[in-house]
From TrEMBL:
Organism of this sequence: Pseudoneurospora amorphoporcata
Family in the record: Belongs to the thiolase-like superfamily. Thiolase family. Belongs to the FBPase class 1 family.
Domain Fructose-1-6-bisphosphatase class I N-terminal: 12-200
UniProt superkingdom: Eukaryota
Protein's cellular compartments: Peroxisome
Record lineage: Eukaryota, Fungi, Dikarya, Ascomycota, Pezizomycotina
Domain Fructose-1-6-bisphosphatase class 1 C-terminal: 204-332
Protein name: Fructose-1,6-bisphosphatase
Amino acid sequence: IEGEKINKNIVTLTRFLTEEQVKHKEATGDFTLLCHALQFSFKSIAYYIRRATLVNLTGLAGSSNTTGDEQKKLDVISNDLFIEAMRSSGKCALLVSEEEEDVIYFKDAKNARYAVACDPIDGSSNLDAGVSVGTIFAIHKLADDSTGCKEDILKPGTELIAAGFTMYGASAQLVITMKGGSVNGFTLDQALGEFILTHPNMTIPKKRAIYSVNEGNSLYWEDNVKAYFNSLKEGQEDAGGKPYSARYIGSMVADAYRTLLYGGIFAYPADKKSPKGKLRILYECAPMAMVFENAGGQALDSKMNRMLEVVPQHIHDKAGIFMGSYDEVEKIGNQISAGV
Ligand code: AHM
Ligand code: MG
């Protein structure tokens, strides 16, 4: 019978989170509620991105964010949606967003124990062309005696309790990982309005001859970085004598998602033009590094330190990043650290 082929034992994100909560005896349910608010913001952002061209949401908003980038209308809307989702959850004490200069404190959330960092729309230069963008999130727990302060979020990635991203592509893909846990991928079923577990226990291939970097910056790269990327194009012994393939979307979430599934490396190195790198530690580098490490890969900064151990001094601090398959990052470590 046709009906027999249909999977009736579907794991939604809600079910997944509830089952995870049961595994942790000390859990209060607060984290689960925070994640419900997160997933609602992803669904709303996905909805507005899909409709952007139809309802005049493409183009600039006429303002610029803290870093001086011109804001797109969707940057502004997504940031507002994310902030409201966190505020209304009652579980978020403070929020750092790429679009906000300062930390946002939700003082009304009296019993909130979480601090969240987010990039509401990462890769927004791709928006008007309909190319994949994403939302990145990172969740810290407040210190026991804290009611919410900057120090609760200015922490290294090793202290994250959960992190992940949603990619708005052909479908919306949510990837989430928790401290010491596996990496799980969910696909938004538009008809059901639910994220469905489609990629359980994701692991990144150990190696793959694909590199993903903006080579337009190579004029500014340090010599050791130049030498490393040039070596990939020269035909590698361990890639059957063939050169690596290049893939670069210019949306970290989309480049990272592909790298997670296919393997290879993604990099945004610090260079002479941007000595501290371009990508932000709290809401770009650290959460991605957590996903990659929990999937069996690695992530380093431009000084070849473990990305998760980098401690930001300020909420919008940046770092260079190299992340991907375990063996590929190992190779970078060996080739580049010689010149660090
Ligand atoms: P954004 O958060 O302002 O969109 O910038 C971050 C994006 C990343 O998604 C991507 O990896 C990188 O910037 C691309 O930068 P470039 O255009 O310099 O290659
Ligand atoms: Mg970004």
